[in-house]
Amino acid sequence: MQPSELSLTAAADAVRERRLSPVELVDSVLDRIARVEPHLGAYVTVTAQRARSAARAAAHEAVAGRFRGPLHGIPMALKDLIDVAGMATTASSRVRADHRAEADSTVAARLSAGGAVLVGKTETHEFAYGLTTPQTRNAWDRDRVAGGSSGGSAVAVAAGAAVFALGTDTGGSVRVPAALNGVVGLKPTYGLVPRHGVTSLSWSLDHVGTLTRSVEDAALVLSAVAGHDPRDQSSLSAAGEDYRPGGEGDLTGLRVGVPGNYYFDRVHPEVESAVRRAVDRLQALGARLVEVEIPMTRYIQATHWGLMVPEATACHERTLRTVPDLYEPDVRVLLEAGELLSAGDYLRAQRARTLMRQEWARMLNEVDVIAAPTVPVTAVPAGESSVTWSDGTEESVSEAYVRLSSPANITGVPALSVPVGHDRAGLPIGMQLLGRPLAEALLLRVGHAYEQTEPARGLAPVG
User: Fold this and answer.
1) Distance in angstroms (rounded) separating the CA atoms of residues 451 and 216
2) Active site (catalytic) residues
3) Locate the Amidase domain: which residues (predicted)?
4) Which of 8, 239, 358, 391 is most buried, with most CB under 10 Å away?
5) In terms of Cα–Cα distance, which of 114, 154, 161, 118 is closest to 137?
6) For residue 238, what pLDDT is reported?
7) Which residues pair with 430 in a beta bridge?
């Protein structure tokens, strides 16, 4: 096994026990990037020289017995919405081609302080306004979509081109590519991870999240980046916490909500079967299954779009007027559509969100977590614009991928996507666990317990 194949947890143990040098680890990941990046297109830029310099510094600290924590010397990637001082933050757009960050974002600074080593900035669907990341290819099948908008981050982790990565999630943009590429994606509670220095799409829906190869890895990264930042007005005053899951996987007494509506509607049979098998596995670990009814489902799509579209247009108001031709056509259309929505439409969406949060809080008083599919269908062929369901109805690819993930953004509850198998074409399937606000520790414990019942996952078979 090459060092680039190690999970974060395994790599951290090896570095701490001085069985592996940060220099060896970073070199292995950079070698892996050189091999797979021409096939995948996960990176906007690779910072090899910077990474090797940081790895040497981390190695010197390790020799001296100075460890900054579990991320010491671990190679990471950041979605190219996240500022790193002196580097471009392009948002994968010609609009931002000349932008350079003057300072680190909060999350980049916290990861650097924890000893993590940046190996590059990853591709996003332009300004995170899409669910496919068309310039990046799926780690399991290059002819399929990577998912979005954090497609580059998910693909890099799945392919061994980063040990972990950060992404952003406005309607599923961490969890969707995590599910489609067979990695773990965590969208924390709204406000738990600061967004200062992160390019916004929709300020009331945006979250910074993690992409890792295991649930335990996600806990390690969350522990490093979570916590209050006064520069982010939405930042929660939550105390620092060690989110690493413990225990032997016994879920006795845990109430797992299984949706009787919405989450299993218009879902591919192979996805439904894999998720229901995973739910049965939770029951075998001692959990009690409780059927729940998802509230206000007829308003979910309208509420999500009613919030996101006008907020995104407001963020881009100046450049949409001055350099409209620099946007890709799909993003430009959405931004222009936002100018047609009235203040009344936006306020109605905000009122619907308030009611939805109240109803979800009532539902989550009855169960501890909800288990459901992350996306209704595995990675579709690149260029495919719609999905046709068994009843003959047609749905756009973007609407299909966002449908099951957007409720967690509207309500702000934490959500974790965990791989639960593959379809007959060998494409990954994800199960989504949702919980009460600030219940990340419980979600991670449940996800970790499930993960312990499965064989260890290897890298995507990139040729």
Assistant:
1) 10
2) 79, 149, 173
3) 24-444
4) 8
5) 154
6) 67
7) 419
The continuous run of DSSP H or E covering 269 comes out as helix 269-284
Alpha helices in 185-250 (DSSP H): 215-225
Distance CA 321, CA 336 (A): 10
Q: Which single residue is written with the structure tokens 């439904």?
A: 272
Residue 4 to residue 51: CA distance in whole angstroms: 14
Q: Would you state the pLDDT for residue 239? A: 59
Phi-psi category of 407—alpha, beta or left, where left has phi over 0 and alpha has psi -120 to 50?
Answer: alpha
300 three-class SS? helix
Nearest-angstrom CA–CA distance, 393 and 130: 22
- As given in the structure block, the two tokens for residue 127 are 């300004």
Residue with tokens 């702000």: 412
The two tokens of residue 138 are 């799926």
Burial (CB < 10 A; 0-12, 13-18, 19+), residue 390, is exposed
* DSSP single-letter state for residue 43: E
Residue 394: what residue type? E
The token duo for 225 is 């980046």
> Are 130 and 149 a contacting pair, CB within 8 Å?
yes
Structural contact between residues 180 and 173, judged by C-beta atoms closer than 8 angstroms: no
Report residues of the chain scoring pLDDT below 70. Answer: 238-240, 463
Place of tokens 């050189």: 34
> Angle CA(317)–CA(322)–CA(327) in degrees, nearest 5?
75
**170/219 Cα distance (integer angstroms):** 21
Model pLDDT, residue 455: 86
User: Rounded to an integer, what distance in angstroms lies between the CA atom of residue 141 and that of residue 211?
Assistant: 19
Classified as helix, coil or strand, 122 is strand
Phi, psi of 122 (to 5 degrees): -100, 155
CA 416 to chain centre: 9
Residue 418: exposure state from Cβ atoms within 10 A (0-12, 13-18, ≥19): buried
d(CA 298, CA 301): 7
3-class SS of residue 138: coil
- Count Cβ atoms below 10 Å from residue 280 Cβ, excluding itself: 12
- In terms of Cα–Cα distance, which of 453, 448, 457 is closest to 429? 457
**For the chain, what are the domain ranges?**
1-463
